[in-house]
């Protein structure tokens, strides 16, 4: 099945750079009308200007921010037919990391998806058509040593995407969960020596992730794996959790601390 994006309204959060900017570029190239959202207003406006898209800067995680984004996007696009919940934060540390790191991670990586869906799903059900894209991470399928807030909230983001699909997939709402490993973005470069050791080998470009997303939309596939080997790791984890956990402990012991941001 082929997805015709010509004239369709698309919103991409966290689209000022990285994976989000690549999504926006790919959707514009496919003929869609695109809203570029980013907390960094200058980045959103620059990306939108370069692409011929609409810039709607702002916080795509808070309840008020999501409501403002959806309202502004509807003003620009008419209907929102594809929403890419791409904005994310990577916070490192153990269970002992401060409450703010957990709160920010939960709001940006999970509740932003819930809040957008709350506003969009009723309209999509009425129309019988809509697409929700969650940029998750291979960490949502597997995990990552040394970054408890990131690992836990990415698992939750995947669980919410699965829940949306199982609840509304037969009612016209299509859901895609994008789960790459290393992607050559600022998040990768800022993940510290341990993060780079885990993710930089085999890292792909953001444009590769966007290409794989559009292919999954054409195929109707829920799970988007720019690194196909992640599927084998995920299957191995399910088949023998104790063996998988032992391997993860060895990996964690061999790595320095992950130094993702904690602010």
């Amino acid at each position: 099945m082929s997805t015709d994006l010509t004239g369709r309204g698309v919103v991409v959060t966290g689209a000022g750079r990285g994976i989000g900017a690549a999504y926006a570029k790919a959707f514009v190239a496919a003929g869609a009308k695109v809203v570029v959202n980013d907390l960094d207003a200058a980045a959103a406006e620059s990306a939108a200007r370069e692409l011929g898209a609409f810039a709607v800067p702002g916080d795509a995680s808070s309840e008020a921010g999501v409501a403002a984004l959806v309202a502004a996007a509807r003003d620009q696009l008419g209907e929102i037919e594809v929403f890419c919940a791409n904005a994310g934060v990577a916070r490192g540390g153990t269970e002992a990391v401060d409450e703010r790191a957990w709160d920010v991670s939960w709001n940006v990586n999970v509740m932003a998806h819930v809040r957008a869906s709350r506003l969009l799903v009723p309209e999509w059900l009425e129309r019988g058509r809509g697409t929700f894209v969650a940029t998750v991470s291979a960490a949502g399928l597997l995990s990552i040593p040394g970054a408890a807030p990131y690992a836990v909230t990415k698992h939750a983001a995947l669980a919410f995407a699965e829940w949306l699909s199982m609840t509304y997939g037969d009612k016209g709402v299509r859901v895609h969960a994008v789960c790459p490993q290393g992607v050559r973005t600022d998040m990768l470069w800022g993940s510290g020596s341990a993060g780079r050791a885990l993710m930089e080998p085999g890292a792909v470009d953001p444009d590769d992730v966007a290409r794989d997303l559009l292919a999954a939309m054409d195929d109707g596939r829920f799970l988007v794996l720019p690194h196909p080997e992640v599927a084998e790791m995920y299957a191995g984890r399910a088949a023998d959790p104790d063996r998988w956990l032992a391997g993860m402990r060895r990996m964690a012991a061999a790595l320095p601390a992950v130094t993702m941001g904690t602010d």
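The two ends are 43 Å apart (CA to CA). Residues 25 and 61 are 22 Å apart (CA to CA).
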